[in-house]
Design goal:
This protein is of the alpha/beta class and 299 residues long. It has 12 helices and 10 strands. The strands form 2 sheets. An 8-stranded parallel beta sheet has the order 1-10-7-6-5-4-3-2. Strands 8-9 form a two-stranded antiparallel ribbon. It is globular, with a radius of gyration of 17 Å.
């Protein structure tokens, strides 16, 4: 089993809610980006909690601070301003921790998560990522392209990031019932192959059930030289009643969700580490306790 791997932080949105922040529904709001505006000190606290638990990398908190989401929700705030604040909050947390912690700059989907059909044209997506890259330049240790739901957006994110940074991590999403597919309906193996030309430092899977994501990792491992994972603290449970229709693949995810404990999550983490994962962390519903359990595996 590997003893040397990066440990990402825990899920931000669910941790904000757990700490009492009035977190709005992510499908109808700017979600966790609201905390950058209303409770920046709470974001610093969550960063520090993850660091104290054992994270060696924290990710900037601007995942939902994108131009299209802010415009759609009629927010008066600018994504560039919020992304700058998010980076400053991460830097503050690292400084206050007194530890040698890496910062990963977030390259999020430009529009609603898991909805690649809402992605705009190439030039608009490129401009978004180039702007973030300019903000991060010289201040982050890596770029984390998160929750990529289509080859189209994944390739653009990887291309822009690799032009600015040496260490680029790109994470695909496989949130539906088939761990071999990304939300666009494209095959994970083809998605992973499509970005191999950018010489990424690592390809990951995130924001899916821990058991299904393990199957996705087997596929990713066959293509990518370095793999990583940050799953949700949940497993897939077959329901007697199936969804008749849905707008977002996320509805399927939640319909079949059973939450698991940090100890149960750690058992999956053992498998991921044994598979050779170079990066392990937590996504939705994971807490600093999950990170602590992962760190114990590392030590």
């Amino acid at each position: 089993m590997l003893s040397d791997f990066y440990i990402l932080d825990c899920g931000l949105g669910s941790e904000l809610k757990r700490k009492g922040f009035d977190l709005p529904d992510w499908t109808n709001s700017i979600w966790s980006a609201q905390a950058i505006i209303d409770e920046p000190d709470l974001i610093v606290e969550i960063h520090k909690d993850s660091i104290e638990a054992g994270s060696t990398v924290i990710t900037t908190s601007n995942y939902y601070a994108t131009p299209l989401i802010l415009k759609d929700k009629q927010s008066k705030f600018d994504y560039k301003e919020l992304s700058e604040i998010a980076l400053t909050l991460a830097e503050k947390a690292v400084k206050q921790s007194g530890k040698d912690i890496m910062i990963a700059g977030c390259f999020p989907p430009i529009n609603v998560s898991f909805r690649p059909d809402l992605t705009p044209n190439k030039s608009e997506v490129e401009s978004f990522y180039e702007t973030l890259a300019e903000i991060y330049k010289g201040r982050v240790d890596a770029i984390l392209c998160e929750t990529m739901a289509s080859i189209f957006e994944g390739e653009i994110a990887a291309d822009v990031a690799s032009q600015y940074f040496k260490k680029v991590w790109l994470s695909w999403n496989t949130r539906g019932l088939d761990p071999s597919l990304i939300p666009s309906g494209e095959e994970l193996i083809q998605a992973a192959k499509s970005v191999s030309k950018f010489n990424l430092d690592c390809q990951l899977i995130n924001c899916a059930h821990a058991d299904l994501i393990t199957e996705s990792l087997e596929i990713l491992k066959s293509v990518a030289s370095n793999i990583g994972v940050y799953a949700n603290s949940s497993i897939h449970t077959l329901r007697e009643k199936q969804l008749e229709s849905y707008e977002n693949i996320s509805e399927v995810h939640y319909h079949h969700q059973t939450e698991i404990s940090s100890d149960e999550y750690a058992e999956f983490a053992k498998k991921w580490i044994a598979m050779g994962c170079k990066i392990v962390g937590g996504c939705c519903t994971t807490t600093p306790e999950h990170i602590k359990k992962i760190a114990e595996l590392r030590s």
